């Protein structure tokens, strides 16, 4: 009873302190994220062996100065806690010792606190009546506050201050460097003895720490994990395992220190070691349950649910690729996780953390994850983030790192102004057999062009006309050259690449489909691409859900939503039929049985829970429920619901301020939005009727209605 | 007895492993140095308050890959220890687990070990019969070893490998991150009760950890430190102190955790706390005793000895400025420590460590210590290091960082190609009243020019003709412009600065004296500067031993050695008369009593043990004993002894290979060198006679003799 009361009490405190703009732990922006991402990404193991990333990992600044000015109505006491040793100045005067409490006088008070910590990011928490660490504190890694021989301090005019980084560490005892994701008990659904061991099944793919109950004895335990039963039982080839050496004289419940992503665990013990039961601590990122989707189509609902669970498992400290193998942050994979997230948890903090972690720190010596396309997705992700959230604070914060990243790219252009893979650059595009990376690949130029446009847009948001002009000019030139170089009017398509300055014969889907949803094309070109590329069986098929996502998006844009629904049900539905509890890294319908499990030349190399498998969340939210912002943060937005083969569908679309609630059947639409000014656009045989406002006819069968926030619209119409 | 045996045994092991090219701990070059220098420099306190540096502190790479290829005559077992978690590959194949032992097969074996550690620098120790970590391993922070979907690894051709960093951690249990300087017991020479406390005098300035013996009770102890008795007793104003809260029921000998630089400690305790005695643990850098100086002049000998002790105290993990206050690494101060070191311990490792720590890591965003002149001294120090040691391995190692530092400087030139203080730049030059830093200061251009020449020299050493040409061209242009802009033939001097493109009237000593020993001048210009600047009482006097050092060097070069000897005895002799046990940060003969102790507007602000106070070591070694290398590493060298007011002098001058032994009286010289080809040049009334070789007449009274290594020369001459 007492304990429950305490928990309630704490959560009240937390919500109160939010309301009061209460204190939060602060750090140099990106430093906690860089540090935590290093920690997370270096937890990968392969058959018990530590498996490190192959790109540069950055570090936090070890010495940073935080400051803010206050005008206090009264004297007040503040409390100070830091991760690291620290020095406090008030109005430029050093305070003696390393005070954890301090009285600030009435009136103007400038507080500077400098924190040093080599092991973990210097972080600060100050709480008082008015003086609290919050997002509006400033920070620098170099205050240049030298004093001359007379004792006069420098003017420090060369010092660059930026706004601090922060997250949700809103209590003094929530030490940032001690951050751990929460866990909860998960029991196995099935256990059986076989092959001198125990096979434990948790019923679906999961992530966390195995617990052996009533463990006792002296000897060895081997645990072989599998996303499939085949993998767990194949002790010689399974991708992850734990070898334990047990010396335990009394029975204990022992939970492993290393987390794994798995569904099955096959456990073998030597003679003198025993345990009674196996469970696990499920480790997860708490994300608000916001976006939903339900329809008359059970298979589609299942696809959405499994996509959601795939997202749940791959949304962690950061958005990762897959739970079994890499557990790394890949920019291209994360770019899709962000987009799905906008239709699911709308968890801005995890998007920001991931963008910061991927960027890392100066100097920039390689592409993000060493992959050229992944650098470009990083740029694109920032504008998307702004469009969905309207968070210009973050654009301001990240813009200097965008500029330096773009500088890096611009310096790597070849004599034609194109991006070509230099030594050490990975031109990825997709996992696809025989895909050429040679010469000037059109896909990279397209993403590069879009990245430059993103720079111009961000420069505009931040009111930097010179930058805007600079990036606009470069992107306009590049776009022009891109069309001239790659568009082939005989093929009605962009070709894959130039080699030695000449178009190759090869046409692949990538450039063509991206050009569609980047809105780079006229109607003729779009139709040409649809017919000659997207719907052309002779063009190399896409095998990864990763690029499948973009392919289906492009088809939605060119009006092939029925086709997309069929494909979606076929492709993701087929994985469900194969028993998928989460969606896969790659799915090839022509394979069967154990062959589905292999990749990278390894029998169980394929990830069966891969973030990019969760694409239906995005497609269903954006193109079937049909909601998307048209200006930043849903200030304006469109809803164009499309009922494909379903009788009805309903869902919630999260926005920065509550959810848009939508129900669509063949003759009824209900919609209510908490935000902005929406435009509902539907096709109907007759003029639809609404309980509020009036529909306007757009063309033959298209009608639009202006949606105001807070109003519950009930609409009658007749679907075509 | 047993303990002594053990110590001997260990030292034999150490020397044996040197002989065998035994293993040593390795890391990414500069990373240990950066990490350790952060640690050291953040130990500064001011009256008990932590006092951090104001410039950017860098970090180690948290994830690095070490590798080397071997051709093994037989199978061998290796032992592996790392600071951090690690992954081992042999011939590209991952070894299971995190092995501390491993069998390598006969034949070609490529060992790659990747270590991750966020808290302290990733470091590695491997020992085997042939496979040992040593200076020839390679390291990278980014191996770019991605694999494609078929399992094929990238060619990693974009990866930059460099040679590893290392020092003297030659045993597996000498963990780099646990490095501490050694300590030894030092007893107080005097203790007396006064003012409700105990004043303890250690007889001379010292550095270390105070020990309170038989400490018991519950209450407070306050310790006020002083380099002077006045400071220790002035509890309200002394610069360093410790406040202790004691809860101790049994008597213990308690040693403080924080080191201090001091001579006196004034200790006050509250009623219920007692201790019986006070001693200290003297903390020091072990440096070989190599350079010596002795003469018939006791005062001069004392000046040399006190200089040596000043160097001993300020040579620590790195060369620091002073022991009481900053305890930071300042490039300008260190530049002099290096030079003194070449005539004292010839401790190359500490020079290298300090140069690496000062440089820090990319990106370069400020001048070193934020001071423009200090960046230039850093360049100069590298060429000096090469000249004295001949260590081209280090030049190769540091050259990329020199290039990027120079890039930073070149990008900061103004429209005239001159360096002018930009926002946040500190133009220091010297502590001197009213010294103008406005406009284009001639002193900075001169150092800049010399730095560019250093770049060209290093490019030549490393056989990089393009770089050599680039830097030579810029330096030649700059030198030309420097003479045209600043030389004033009416004043027979360089003026201090240009403001708005026009020469200011001001003539200061700095530029003029540096131009002399940079050998930028013709004989007329030299004479002009000597008469109109150096020996001109109307020109602002230099008050710091820091610039005094260069002033006296310039006077030596223009043939004023008698004058210099007089000045040296006057200036440093006067500090001795004031009771100095170490030399000071600043000495102004016109001050008296307590006024000598103040600086920076604080009563005890002045450091009484400052590295730049030890200049006589350098002046006596280079201009009176008169030995200096003329090509790298004493391959060739000059000895031009000059007996000023002394009857005789003798000394040892360290070289990379033993010491040059020299005795000089008015009619006898004895000299023996272990290295290179020397030229002894002396003034004599008649042709000097040598037991080996023959003197050659150079001009009226100057004769030279070729010195071969290993021969004991006995020379008779008649001094002028």
From TrEMBL, chains A, B:
Domain Alpha-L-rhamnosidase six-hairpin glycosidase residues, every copy: 289-622
Domain Alpha-rhamnosidase-like N-terminal: 64-267
Iron recorded as keyword: no
Signal peptide region: 1-19
InterPro entries linked to this entry: 6-hairpin_glycosidase_sf (IPR008928), 6hp_glycosidase-like_sf (IPR012341), Bac_rhamnosid6H (IPR035396), Rhamnosid-like_N_bacteroidetes (IPR048932)
Key words of the record: Signal
PANTHER family, A to Z: ALPHA-L-RHAMNOSIDASE SIX-HAIRPIN GLYCOSIDASE DOMAIN-CONTAINING PROTEIN (PTHR34987:SF6), C, PUTATIVE (AFU_ORTHOLOGUE AFUA_3G02880)-RELATED (PTHR34987)
Protein name: Alpha-rhamnosidase
């Amino acid at each position: 009873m007492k304990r429950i009361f305490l928990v309630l009490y704490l959560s009240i405190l937390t919500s109160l302190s939010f309301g009061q703009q209460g204190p939060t732990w602060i750090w140099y922006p990106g430093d906690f994220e860089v540090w935590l991402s290093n920690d997370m990404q270096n937890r990968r193991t392969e058959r018990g062996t530590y498996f490190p990333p192959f790109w540069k990992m950055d570090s936090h600044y070890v010495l940073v100065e935080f400051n803010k000015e206050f005008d206090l109505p009264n004297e007040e006491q503040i409390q100070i806690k830091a991760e690291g040793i620290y020095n406090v100045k008030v109005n430029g005067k050093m305070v003696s010792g390393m005070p954890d409490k301090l009285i600030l006088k009435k009136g103007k008070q400038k507080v500077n606190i400098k924190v040093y910590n080599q092991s973990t990011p210097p972080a600060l928490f100050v709480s008082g009546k008015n003086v609290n660490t919050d997002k509006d504190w400033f920070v620098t890694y170099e205050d240049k506050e030298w004093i001359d021989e007379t004792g006069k301090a420098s003017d420090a005019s060369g010092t660059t201050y930026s706004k601090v980084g922060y997250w949700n560490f809103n209590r003094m005892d929530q030490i940032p460097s001690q951050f751990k994701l929460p866990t909860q008990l998960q029991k196995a659904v099935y256990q059986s003895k076989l092959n001198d061991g125990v096979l434990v099944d948790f019923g679906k793919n999961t992530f966390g720490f195995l617990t052996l109950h009533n463990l006792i004895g002296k000897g060895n335990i081997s645990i072989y994990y599998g996303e499939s039963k085949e993998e767990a039982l194949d002790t010689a080839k399974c991708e992850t395992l734990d070898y334990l050496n047990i010396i335990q004289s009394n029975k204990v419940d022992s939970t492993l220190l290393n987390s794994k992503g798995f569904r099955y665990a096959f456990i073998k013990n030597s003679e003198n070691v025993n345990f009674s039961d196996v469970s696990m601590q499920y480790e997860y990122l708490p994300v608000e349950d916001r976006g939903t989707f339900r329809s008359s189509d059970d298979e589609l609902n299942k696809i959405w649910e499994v996509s959601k669970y795939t997202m749940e498992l791959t949304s962690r400290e950061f958005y990762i690729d897959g739970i079994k193998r890499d557990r790394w942050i890949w920019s291209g994979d994360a770019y899709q996780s962000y987009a799905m997230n906008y239709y699911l948890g709308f968890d801005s903090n995890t998007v920001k953390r991931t963008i910061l972690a991927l960027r890392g720190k100066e100097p920039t010596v390689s592409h993000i994850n060493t992959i050229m396309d992944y650098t470009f997705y990083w740029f694109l992700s920032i504008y998307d983030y702004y469009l969905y959230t309207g968070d210009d604070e973050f654009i301001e914060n990240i813009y200097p790192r965008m500029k330096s990243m773009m500088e890096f790219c611009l310096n790597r252009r070849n004599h034609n102004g194109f991006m070509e893979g230099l030594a050490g650059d990975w031109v990825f595009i997709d996992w696809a057999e025989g895909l050429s990376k040679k010469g000037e690949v059109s896909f990279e130029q397209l993403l590069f062009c879009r990245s430059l446009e993103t720079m111009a847009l961000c420069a505009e948001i931040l009111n930097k006309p010179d930058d805007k002009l600079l990036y606009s000019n470069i992107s306009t030139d590049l776009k022009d050259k891109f069309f001239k170089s790659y568009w082939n009017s005989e093929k009605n398509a962009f070709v894959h690449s130039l080699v030695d300055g000449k178009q190759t014969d090869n046409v692949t889907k990538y450039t063509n489909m991206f050009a569609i949803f980047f809105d780079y094309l006229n109607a003729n070109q779009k139709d040409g691409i649809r017919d000659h590329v997207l719907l052309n069986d002779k063009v190399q098929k896409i095998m990864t859900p990763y690029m499948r996502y973009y392919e289906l998006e492009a088809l939605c844009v060119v009006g092939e939503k029925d086709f997309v629904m069929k494909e979606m049900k076929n492709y993701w539905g087929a994985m469900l039929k194969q028993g998928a509890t989460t969606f896969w890294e790659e799915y090839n319908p022509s394979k069967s049985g154990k062959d589905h499990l292999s990749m990278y030349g390894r029998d169980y190399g394929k990830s069966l829970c891969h973030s990019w498998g969760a694409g239906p969340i995005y497609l269903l939210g954006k193109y079937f429920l049909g909601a998307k912002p048209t200006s930043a943060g849903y200030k304006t937005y469109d809803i164009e619901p499309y009922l494909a083969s379903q009788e009805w569908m309903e869902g919630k679309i999260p926005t920065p301020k509550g959810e848009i609630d939508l129900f669509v059947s063949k003759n009824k639409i209900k919609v209510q939005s908490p935000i902005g000014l929406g435009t509902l656009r539907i096709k109907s045989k007759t003029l639809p009727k609404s309980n509020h406002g009036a529909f306007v006819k757009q063309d033959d069968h298209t009608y639009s209605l202006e949606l105001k926030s807070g109003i519950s619209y009930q609409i009658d119409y007749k679907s075509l």
